[in-house]
């Protein structure tokens, strides 16, 4: 678990994770990774200029979760 708060409204879940963004040919910047879930779709939005969001379905999210658990123990 994490100590970051999770917000919920109208069946939607959202969490903000502080991250580092390394744009091509530029210096390292900090950004917020906004992770939200709605209707079985998970959206990963880096909130960085020029970077698009990534969406994954529930099965893909489970694969990501299992991979992170293996890597992080």
Describe this structure in words.
With 73 residues, this protein is of the alpha+beta class. It is built from one helix and five strands. The radius of gyration is 14 Å and the shape is globular. The mean pLDDT is 79.
Average pLDDT reading: 79
Order of helices and strands: EEEEEH
The number of distinct helices, counting runs of at least 4 residues, comes to 1
* Secondary structure: number of strands: 5
The chain-level structural class is alpha+beta
- Estimate the strand proportion: 35-45%
What does the oligomeric state look like here?
A: single chain
Shape: globular
- How many strands, which pairing sense, and closed or not: the largest β-sheet? 5 strands, antiparallel
Give the N-to-C terminal Cα separation: 13 Å
Task: Walk across the major sheet and give the strand order.
Answer: 1-2-3-4-5
Radius of gyration: 14 Å
Share of helical residues:
10-25%
Low-confidence stretches: none
Tags for this entry?
73 residues; alpha+beta; five-stranded antiparallel beta sheet; 5 strands
Summarize the structure.
The protein is of the alpha+beta class and 73 residues long.
Write the layout of secondary structure elements.
Layout: E1 7-9, E2 12-21, E3 29-38, E4 41-45, E5 54-57, H1 58-72
Antiparallel strand pairs: 1-2, 2-3, 3-4, 4-5
């Amino acid at each position: 678990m994490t100590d970051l708060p999770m917000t919920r409204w109208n069946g939607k879940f959202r969490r903000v994770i502080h991250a580092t963004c390394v744009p091509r040919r530029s210096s390292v910047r900090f950004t917020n990774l906004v992770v939200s879930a709605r209707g079985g779709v998970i959206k990963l939005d880096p909130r960085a200029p020029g970077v698009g969001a990534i969406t994954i379905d529930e099965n893909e999210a489970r694969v990501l979760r299992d991979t992170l658990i293996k890597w992080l123990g």
